[in-house]
Amino acid sequence: MNNINKKDYEKYVNKKVPKPNYIKNCIWAFLVGGLxxxxxxxxxxxxxxxxxxxxxxxxxxxxxxxxxxxxxxxIGVYDKLGKRAGAGSIVPITGFANSIVSPAMEYKREGFVxxxxxxxxxxxxPVLVYGYGSSILVGIIYLLLKK
Length: 147
Fold this sequence. Notes:
Blueprint: H1 6-16, H2 22-48, H3 54-74, H4 77-85, H5 87-90, H6 93-106, H7 112-119, H8 124-146
Helix pairs in contact: 2-3, 3-6, 6-7
InterPro entries: Spore_V_AC (IPR014203), SpoVA (IPR005562)
Keywords: Membrane, Transmembrane, Transmembrane helix
Transmembrane segments: 21-44, 56-78, 85-103, 123-145
């Protein structure tokens, strides 16, 4: 067995690890995230033409974007987009749909209850729990300071 010290091994690994192109990654993230947001704005403008109020327009836009994100994850398109765009595909609301559908699809072979249902919120679940929890705490602090 070849004994190699920790520093030499670290140098070896650093030589073999591919160096990311940060400028290219940032441009892809900006373009894809911008296109997703532009598409969301197009949906908003289209839905406004049906005479809905501002809350209904926002809800409809979110529902449509989440549905499309889940659909494109289901057919494998969103994952390919995510590999290319990185954070540009994760930050918009479509990334939320992707974070729910991806684990569910990965574990679908284990059945509906123990696979899909149990793993569906493995990524998004902690975000939701801490989001709700922190909003409740802020609400309580606001209520106490308001008095």
